[in-house]
Amino acid sequence: MRIRCPHCGERDHTEFTYGADATLQWPAADNTSHDAWMSYVYDRDNPRGPYWEFWQHSAGCHIWFKVLRDTLTHEIIDYATADQPVSHGLKADGSAAGGNGA
Description:
The chain is mostly beta strands and 102 residues long. 9% of the residues lie in helices and 32% in strands.
């Protein structure tokens, strides 16, 4: 698998480290609910198809960014900056992601 770093260009996946689901939102700062925080920390989907993930170029420039990857085929469909809002199944521009697993 090849991943395109926004700064360094395309590199082998061994230079990168997976971070997490890129669509998770923290509970509100004033939310002290045990259940809300337990859900945020531990509940994860196991999707099939296009899925946004955080990746870091850990063996290069160390930048964090988002990758839309098809979890069935590992095809990389799109990229986004770390601070850009994204939704599973959609490209960064809001268009349908397609992918083989959907």
